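Design job #97: recover the sequence.
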């Protein structure tokens, strides 16, 4: 069973992990890292980063293809996002107005109490 380790949670924190892999793959990594003049760790990290970037690039290409093929869907998606942004703005504005009304009411009540205390 793996031991649980505590990390600070900072995204730029470098953490150590243990990885199990086949000997053949380890040797390939070692050979390529040596050819590139870097450590196996650096090679593994670079390959992982490239794989994630590749996934993101594929997702972007797929999204662009959908937008280019179905522009009406893309327009509707933009409209939906605009509606959400507007709704969020109105909610925030309504909260600000409610807060201002509450503050004015509290100030009026305080002024009334002070007049009654005199």
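Job complete. Output follows.
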């Amino acid at each position: 069973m793996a031991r649980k380790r505590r990390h600070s949670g900072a995204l730029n924190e470098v953490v150590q992990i243990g990885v199990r892999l086949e000997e053949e793959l380890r040797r390939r990594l070692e050979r390529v890292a040596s050819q590139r003049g870097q450590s196996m760790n650096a090679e593994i990290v670079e390959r992982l980063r490239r794989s994630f970037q590749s996934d993101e690039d594929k997702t972007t290409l797929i999204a662009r293809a959908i937008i280019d093929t179905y522009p009406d869907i893309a327009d509707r998606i933009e409209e939906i996002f605009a509606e959400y942004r507007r709704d969020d703005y109105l909610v925030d504005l309504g909260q600000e107005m409610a807060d201002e009304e509450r503050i004015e009411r509290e100030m009026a009540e305080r002024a009334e109490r002070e007049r009654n205390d005199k």
